Amino acid sequence: MVRGGVAVRHEWDRSEVVDDLDEALVAARAGGEDGFVALYRGLQPRMLRYVTALVGADAEDATAEAWLQIARDIRTFTGDLDGFRGWVTAICRNRAMDLARARSRRRVLPTDLGFLAERAGSGDTASTALDTLSTRAAVELIAGLPRDQAEAVLLRAVVGLDAAAAGQVLGKRPGAVRVAAHRGLRRLARELTARVGERVRPQPAALALRDPR
Amino acid sequence: MTARRTRRLSARVLERLLIGAAAQPDELRTLLDAAAGPGSTRDRAAEAAAVQAFIAASQLTPLPSDTVWPSPMERDSLSRLLAVKTLAVIALIGGLAGGVAIAATGDGGRRDDAPSATTGARPELPEQAADRASHALEAEGSGQLATPSSTERDDEHGLAELPRPQPGPKPGLSGLCRAGQAGAGDNPGRAEENPVFAELADQSDATDGPDNLGRNCADRAADGPPGRPDTGPANPDHSAGPPSDGPAAERPAPTAHAGGPDRAADQHRGGAARGRDSRSSDR
Questions:
Q1: ipTM of this predicted structure
Q2: Which of A187, B176, B203, B257 has its CA 20 to 30 A from that of A116?
Q3: Integer angstrom CA distances of residue B18 from A131, A149, B112
Q4: Nearest CA to A180 among A165, A161, A163, A192?
């Protein structure tokens, strides 16, 4: 039986994305509009989820500003797609931090994540509640982790950075990122195990704006 | 049961989960797959604005391939010009450093003109003393002192309109005395044997005898005019006033008017003019 979650994962197969976006990056750096659009469509959804865990509903504004900067500076970028992904992530994170400082002390409510796509899993008659876990609910669960763990998990599992690239974005050593991600996954595993047999209810995204500094 | 399942999540399994290579445990795999699911059009709300910014940036900024690089010949010319400029700057810095060093040496010698110099606290090489004496004599022939220190100092402090000191009866001999005393040090006989001081020795012969050169010079110092040009603090290290910052072109060069261009040039080259004049010419 092909489970919905795995099927979704296959749509994001890394090799396919890298192949397409590699060409898109070359085209965009040469001034090709199509290449830039492909990069935007390939990276923006993951960036939006990651930034959502940081600033909640302000993620759309933060990523929009980040892409304006990326559009201006993409020709100055030198490197491959992995480096470009890290570069874009760092810009998005910086813009998110700027917004968090500008709108400081405004806590994010659970409804703030409503703008995320409510994309349910394909197993609508799933045997367990997890089979119907939506993207929004999954991001909310991860965002409920302590901030360092949530960022590490999102950067590695959602954005697709390796430990070294995530460490560069976060200003940490790769080992620290790895440890934080592992701790976050173990914590998520405990929570998910406790919820087996009942519908997963999104937890308040207490991570957002917990301590942007 | 939960604790057992959590303990089974080794670092290797977790790492494989993070890169999407592990299918177990199911709950975590499902969660990560859902979080990394494909986006929707709603996620791309700012796509139009980003594309517009990209197009605008393309129109404003030339493409990297459009950048005009200088041809190899132009690059050679540019590098050559840069090298020439660098050498010029190095030469200028070196010249300034050398001028400062020479100026400090010249002023140090002049410091011996102070009354304490009679104690021989600052010895001077006989060659330097002879050099200074030669140029003092040259200036004497032109009717003016070779080192117009007072005038220069006045100009530096904006006091050029003050009356200049009247030239003494034998100003060149005064300079010769100073040079002789400075060069003599502990051995006055050496200075007297120097042919440069022959004229001063002749003066001494006419009055007190050849062995009284120092006394003769002391008498001259006592009888000299109050506006003696070289008695002020000339060394910037010991000067009470600020050092001169003005360009050399703004300073008058009295010797050039008095003795003609050739003579002035000689004095600038000479040791008597090393102190202030050489510093000015270096600037």
A1: 0.75
A2: A187
A3: 19, 13, 85
A4: A163
Query: How far is the C-alpha of B179 from the C-alpha of B198, rounded, in Å?
Result: 13
Residue with tokens 């997890």: A130
CA distance A157 to A180: 13
**Residue corresponding to tokens 């993207």:** A135
CA dihedral B209, B214, B218, B224 (to 10 degrees): 80
Alpha carbon distance A80, B129 (integer Å): 75
pLDDT tens per residue across span B22-54: 777 778 888 898 998 887 777 888 889 999 999
B38: chain A residues, CB-CB within 8 Å: 8, 11-12, 45, 119
Encoded tokens for B213: 């050169």
Confidence of residue A211 (pLDDT cuts 50, 70, 90): very low
Q: Are the beta carbons of B1 and A193 separated by less than 8 Å?
A: yes
Which has more confidence, B278 or B56?
B56
Give dist(CA A135, CA B37) in Å, integer: 6
Nearest to B25 among A63, A138, A189 (CB): A189
Question: Residue A77: is it exposed, middle or buried by C-beta count within 10 angstroms (0-12/13-18/19+)?
Answer: middle
Q: Which of B240, B233, B232, B184 shows the shortest CA–CA distance to B212?
A: B184
Please confirm whether the linkage preceding B25 is cis (ω < 30° from 0): yes
For A27, which residue in chain B has the nearest alpha carbon?
A: B63
Supply the DSSP string of chain A, one letter for each residue. Answer: ---HHHHHHHHT-HHHHHHHHHHHHHHHHTT-HHHHHHHHHHHHHHHHHHHHHHHGGGHHHHHHHHHHHHHHHGGG--S-HHHHHHHHHHHHHHHHHHHHHHTTT-PPPGGGGGGS-----S-TT-SSGGGG--HHHHHHHHHTS-HHHHHHHIIIIII---HHHHHHHHTS-HHHHHHHHHHHHHHHHHHHHHHTTSPPPPPP-TTTTS---
- Chain B residues with CB under 8 Å of A4 CB are 30
Q: Is residue A133 within 8 Å of residue A191, measured between CB atoms? A: no
* Count of C-beta atoms within a 10 Å radius of residue B129: 27
Å between B104 CA and nearest CA of chain A: 54
